[in-house]
C-alpha cells in the first residue's frame, strides 16, 4: 500500500497563499491539498482553476473549511491581522498549523486569554496562539519563519553548533527590500505593521535561533528615516530603520531594514563568535551569471524575498508535512515566535518615542 | 478529473538512476514512476524498498520492463556503453526516452545502421539512436545534458539571444571534478570514456548551444597530463586536459577538464561576444555562507557535479515530463548530442596522437 | 633650479611615527625629512640609524626640535593624549601640522581656552587646536584621517558628489581589527580612549564626509560587549560595539567596531542614497590571490589597518606636502575633526550610562 | 654623508617612457634621473618640461646620451623593434639595463652573432642581448616583465615555493585588454608583433616562472579569430587567441589573449598543483567600491594594464635600482626572457600555419 499523504488545506489564496498552495500541491511529495479557504471571488476563482482539478475543495466559509472531511493540517497565509484568530480556531479544531509570520501585530484586546504583564496587546495575540497550542501538544503548530529552512542559514547554524566560532556574541542582520514604485506599495506597507514586524521580524527570529531562544532582552533602541516614502510617517513607519537589541546574556544584536534598495533584495546576516565569524549572503545574486559589459562587471539580484528564499519555502512545506505525518519534532518551537513579535513591537515603540526601552532581568519591560 | 500523469520507468538503479528515480517520484508532480529496471540484486533491492511502495514494479529483464502495461517513457541511467542499445530498444517499443549523456562511447561496430564516412565507430552508435528516433517523430527523445536546464546557463542564454553581447565568437568552458582518492575512482574513471567524453562533453554541448548547433568544426587539438593519477595513462586518459576547437564559422572554443581539484567541483563557462562577455560560475560555492576564521575568509564548494546541478536535474525531469504529456518541443534536439560525441572523440584521438585534427568545410574529418 | 622641497619634521618615532618618517623620506618626492623628535633612547636610536644619514637631525627636546632651522611642517605621531599640546605648540611656532587622529581624548581642563558649554573637557582639547589654528590661517593644519586619502573612498565620494545615488541618507560603517593575543594589546587598548575614539572615529569622520560636515547630531546610542577581553571593562571599554547616530537633517548612521576578528582587518562602509547604494570593501583581501585547497576557497586579509591603508598614508603625505608648498586647500577642514571627537565621546558616554544621549537642534547636548 | 643614488637615464619618452621616467624620478628614492633620450621634438619637449627642472639632460642622439657623465643605468622604453639594438649598445657602454618587454620581435638577421639552430631570426635578436650581457656579468640587465613585481603574483609564488599546492603541473593565464575603438588602436596593434608577443608574452613569462625556467617545450598550438578587428588579419594577427604549450616535463599551459573586452582590463592566472590551486585576479576591479544600482551590483575595472600593474612598475624601478647599487641578484634572469620570445614566436607561427609545432627533447623546433 502506498504511504499515506497528509491532507492539507490552504487558508488564503492571495500572493503568498498561492505560493504555499502550489508548493504543497506540486513540490511536497507527502502532502495532498484537499481544501482551500478563499477570501473573495478572485481568490476562489484561482482555487477553482488551479487546485480543484487536483482534488481540492474551495471554501469561502472558514468554519466549513475547517470541517472538511479528513483535513489534517492548515497553512495560514492571510493578512497578518487575521493570523492569530485563524490559527486559534484551527488548533481548536485539532488541525496542525503552519502560520505565516508574524503571528500577530494587531492591537485588539484578546480578552479571553490571561494577560502577560510584560506584553502589550499586540504580543498578547501572539501569546494566545501559543496558549491554545500548548493545550494540544499532539498538534504541530509552526510559525513560518522561512529563513530557518534556508540551506545557507542551516549550514551557518551547523557550524555554530559545532563550536567552530566559539560562543556567538554579536549578531548583525538586515532585511532590505527592493524599492517598489508601484501603486501597490504604500497600501501594502502601511498595513504591514511597519518595518520591524514586516522585515526585521526575520532577523530577530534568526537572532533568537543563533543566540538561543532563552536569551533575555535587556534593551532595545531604534532609529529611522523616511528617505523616499514620506507617506510612511503617517503610520509611524520609516523606509530605513536601524536598531540595537541588548541581551542580559552578554550578547548584542544590530538590525537594519530598508525598503529602498535600487539593486534588488538583499538579506544578509553575520554571526560573530569568540573564535570566528560567519556571514550569510554578503554577495547577493540572482544566479551565477556575471555580465562583463561596458561599465564593468555586473550581476543581478533577486527582486523580492521569494526570489531569494523560494527553495526554503519548499523545504518548509516538506518538513512541516513530515513532522505531522511522522509525529517528529518541529525544527523550532512556537514561543520563540512570540518573543520575536515582542521584540519587534518594542523596537516599533522605541522608534515612535525616540527613547531606548529597557527590560529587567526577567525580560519584563520597565520603560 | 485529475490531470493524468506520465508513466515513467527508470533504467538502472545505480547512483544516477536512484537520483533520477527519486526526482521523478518525489519532485516531478506530473509524473509517476511505474516501473524500474535493475541491473543486479543490489539495485533491485533498492528499488523494492524505495520505489515499490509507491507503485513501481521492479524488473531485471529489460524486455519485460519495456512491456510494462502503460509505460510511456523511460529514463536511461546505466553505464555509458549501454545507453545506445537501451535507447534504441525503447524507441522501437514506442517509449519516450530521456537518456543520460553521453549517448555512446563504445567502439563496437553498429552494423545494421548506415555508415557515416566522417564518423568513426563510436559516433556511429550515437548516430544510430538519432536514426531510430527520427523514424518516430511523435516520440520525445532527449539526451540528458543537465546543464541545459540550469537556471544560470539559461539566464546567460537569454542574454545571448537578446543580443546583449553581440555575436558570440569565443567560448571557454571547464568541467573540474574534486579529487577523489577512494578506491572507486580508478575503475570509474577508466570506464568513463576519458575526460572528453566524461567531463568536457558538457562543455562541448554548451558550446554548441551558445554558438548554434549548425557550426562546423574546422579542427580540434588536445593536450593533457597525468598529474596525480598515472594509472589513467593505461587507458589513454589524463587527469588534466586542455583543448581547442576551431569552427569554420569564425568561432573558437577552449576547454579544460580536471579530475584533481582540491577544493571541490568547479564548472564554469565564459561566452565572449563582439559586445560583451558572460561568465557562469566564476566564484563557485556550495552555499551563501562565508567563514571568517584564522587564515582568512573561506567558502566551501560542492563536492560533486550533482551538488552543483541538482536543481537542473529536477527541472529536466519536469520539462521532459511536460513535453511528453503536452507534445511540446524539447529544449534541444538529439542530433546535437551526436555532434558533441563526435567532437569529444576527435579530442580523445588528438590527445592520443599528439596531433591536431582537421575537418573540411562540410565537417568531414580529413586527418 | 630644482623645485624646492618642503622641510618636514617628524614628532614621535614609534610605530606610526616610523611609518610617517619613511613615507615622507622615501615616498614623498616634494618633501625632505630634516628633523625628528624622539620620545626616548629607543626611538632616537632608530632615528639616528634610519633618518640621520639622509640629513635629518634627531631631537629629544620638543622646543629645540621646533626651532630647527628651516623646519616648515611637522607630522605628529605620538600617543593620542599628547597630540593636542604638541600641535598647539607647533602652530604657535608657525609650522604646518599633520596630526594623527584623534586630535585628543584626554580629560584635562584646557583652562586658557574659552569653554564650550556643549562640549566636555575631552572635546575642549580638540577645540583648542582649532582655535589656535584659526588664528594662523596661512598654516595648513590637518587631522590625519587616512581613509579620506584612500582611492576607494574617494571613488565613492566622486559618485556621491555626481548625484549617482541621489541624496545620501543612511551611512553604515565598521572598523574591525584582527584579534590580538599578544601582551601588547591590553596596555595599548586601555590607553587608546576606547573603541569609539580609537576605531569608530574613522567611521564617524567618513560619515561627516559623506553627509556633509554641517549635519547636526540629534542623538547617539551605543551598546557593546566584552566578548574576549573582559579586562577592557576596567576602563569602561568593550571589544565589540554597535551604535546609532541620528542627525536632525533626516539622516542616520550605524557604526560597528570590533577588536576580535579572527580573519584579519575588515573596515567597510556603505552609503545609501535615495537612488542607490555604494559599498566600500565588502570583500576584504590582502591581495588578488585565491587559494583553492582542501576545505574550499580561501583568501587572506590584511592583518592590520596599515595593511589596508598603506597607500592612503602615502597619498596623505604627498597631498599635505603639496598643500603646504603650493598654498592650496586641504581636502578637508579641521573643525570636522573636532565634531568627530565630540560624537565619539558622546558614544562613549552612552555606552557607559546605557542611555541614549540627545542633542538639540543646534547640536547642543541636552542629556 | 647621504647614501649615493643611482644615476639613471630614460630611453624614449613616449607613453611608457614617461611612466618609467616619473617612477624613477618621484617614486624611486634611491635613484636620480640624470638624462633621457627623446625620439623626437614632442618627446624632447616633455622631457624639458618635466625632467630637466629636476636635473636631467635631454638628448636626441643616442650615443651622446650614453656618454652622459656619470650615467650608470638605462631604462629602455622605445618601440619593441628598437629594444635589442639599444640594449646592446648600452651594455657595450657598461650601463645597467632595464629593458621593456619583449626584448625583440623584429625579423632582421643579426649577422654578427652566432646562430642558434633552434631559433629563427626573431629570437636571434633577443639572444644577442643575452650574449652581450653575458660578457659583462657585473652589469644588471633585466627584461621588464612587470608582473614579476606584482604583489599578488609574488604571494602566489611564495605559496608555490613553500609547497602549498604540491608540484605545479598546469598553468592557465590570460591577458585581456579593454576594447579600444580609437584611431590609435590599429596602428599600435599592427606594430605590436601580434597578440602573442604583445599580450601573452607576459603569461608565457609567468609560466616559466611558476614551472621553472628550465622546462623544455614539447609543442605549441594556437588558434584565434578576428572578432571585431578584421584589419588585424592583414598582419596575420587576431583579436582573440587561445593556445596550448606542452612541456616535456609533464606540464602543460593554456593561454588566452583578447583585445575586445568590453568591461576593462582583465589579466588573470591559475596555477594548478598536485595538491591545490592558486588563482590570481579572478575578480578584477579598479577599486574596492561596489555600486548597488538599478540593474544590480556593478564594479568597474582598470581600463588598461597600467591601471592594474602601476604599483608593480614602481616596485620594479626600486628593485632594479637596489640591485644596481648593492650588486645584488636580480629577481629573474635574462635567458628566460629569450625563451618567452621564442615560445611567443612559435605560437605566432602556429597561428599562421594552422599547424601544431613540435619540439624535440632538447627544445629544438622540429616542425
TrEMBL record, chains A, B, C, D:
Domain GFO/IDH/MocA-like oxidoreductase: from-to ranges: 153-278
Record has Oxidoreductase as a keyword: yes
Superkingdom: Eukaryota
Entry GO terms, CC: cytoplasm
Coiled-coil regions listed in the entry: none
GO molecular function (one): nucleotide binding
Keyword entries, A-Z: Oxidoreductase
Record domain Gfo/Idh/MocA-like oxidoreductase N-terminal: where: 7-112
A Pfam family the protein falls into: GFO_IDH_MocA_C3
InterPro entries to which the protein is assigned, alphabetical: Gfo/Idh/MocA-like_OxRdtase_N (IPR000683), GFO_IDH_MocA-like_dom (IPR055170), NAD(P)-bd_dom_sf (IPR036291)
Record-linked Gene3D superfamilies: Dihydrodipicolinate Reductase, domain 2 (3.30.360.10), NAD(P)-binding Rossmann-like Domain (3.40.50.720)
PANTHER family: BINDING ROSSMANN FOLD OXIDOREDUCTASE, PUTATIVE (AFU_ORTHOLOGUE AFUA_2G10240)-RELATED, NAD(P)-BINDING ROSSMANN-FOLD SUPERFAMILY PROTEIN-RELATED
The family this protein is said to belong to: Belongs to the Gfo/Idh/MocA family.
Protein's name according to its UniProt entry: Scyllo-inositol 2-dehydrogenase (NAD(+))
